[in-house]
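Before the break, one more example. Copy the sequence into your notebook; we will annotate it together after we see the structure.
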Amino acid sequence: MERIRKRFGPVVALAGVDLEVGRGEVHALVGENGAGKSTLMKVLSGAHAPDDGRMTLDGVAYAPRRPVDALRAGVAMIYQELNLAPDLTVAQNLVLGRERSRLGVVSADPRVDRALAVLDHPDLAPDRPVRELGPGARQLVEIGRALVGEAKVVVLDEPTSSLSAAESEKLDAVIRALRARDVSIVYISHFLEEVKRIADRYTVLRDGETVATGRVADTEIAAIVEQMVGRSLGEAYPRVPHEPGEPLLEVSALSGRERPEGASFTLRRGEILGIAGLVGAGRTELLRALMGLDPVRRGRVTIGGDVDGGAGVRRRIAQGLGLVSEDRKEEGLALDRSIAENLTLSRPVARLGWIDRRLRSAVTKKWSARLAIKMDAAEQPVGALSGGNQQKVAIARLLHQEAELLLLDEPTRGIDVGSKVEVYRLIGELAAQGKSVLMVSSYVPELLGVCDRVAVMHRGALGAPRPVSEWTEVEILDEAIRGAA
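Here is what the structure looks like once it is written out:
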């Protein structure tokens, strides 16, 4: 891709980007949210037509007018939000749109067996419905579709954002298998440790321009970060001085429908408490039970001295609780509604019972500036924003709500490195203001870098919280896998 330019009205999304990917190479494409990565890949995959520039594929001029042209040429795009038919089987999804038939009857397809052999996953039985698969297996089905289509280039957009450590390792193995078959991989990720582990070369985009490219093995992560943001970030996990005070939240033997099971802990004002654990351990269920989204079978919840078991969401909001869900698409945001509507949902901006649109817009601009949300207008649909900017809108809603107790479920998922540092600093500032934070994260260094104490969840059971100084990353992972002794 040479000198690719793309403008949307007055907004310049790409200002002459260059990208070169070798045959059988894993090439990381990195940059902050809004840097132009998604737009560039949409040009590559035929979803957008470039305003200027040229592309070649295998040395031949390449100019897809629509995504199907890209697929036929051998370019497959696998988005962060997967695009599968859940009620069809694995085999049906693999050949969907490319079925082979005889006399009007779809026949058995040897391409399915070949793709499954490369994917090598125990859950991928040809006749199994996709709806029964976990996130990791579904991700592999998408890759399998690219294999069936004999793709030359596969673009993976944040492929591990919803995967466990074991599923990520399996994905690494599949990527290496694709590389061995001379398939080229464009790997988009905010997790630079992954980039360092799996990629051969990298390209950095910033403000719609190519600012750096090089061999991953020859470049330190800190240098890539500085290339991404255009400045030195200083500390990866900035610590804002704060002093925990009296208890705000006390949880005793809390049990949900299935999980958590007998969870007990205390969270103080001005404290950041992290919850670690494997995917499916019950961390999200704990936060949902506290927020009143899931039923509570037994146990006691005390908030600022107010005792109850399983209150509803309205009561929890009135008590000062706010939740940032891990699932932006399904429940974290109303994607077809405006940024302003989403940001003020839990605390509407109204006068005399009517929504004050002008004041709501001003409030939205205030928080958008505070969290550096890249947007065109307050009334823009939130679904038009990048994933990282959508996440910032979800966090801004809690700040506008003036929540005293923030339940943050994977708060930096899909956010670029520079924005993560901003979120970490913001969490510290909230604690310094006396607000309490209960934070779930699958990234252990993040918990150790941001939190005051960490507790580990294993199969629904929550271990005792301990100061971060008493944990190592290995100890947390060991307890997450084996449970507390």
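The domain at 247-482 is CATH 3.40.50.300 (Rossmann fold). The chain has a mean pLDDT of 89. Try to locate both features in your own notes.
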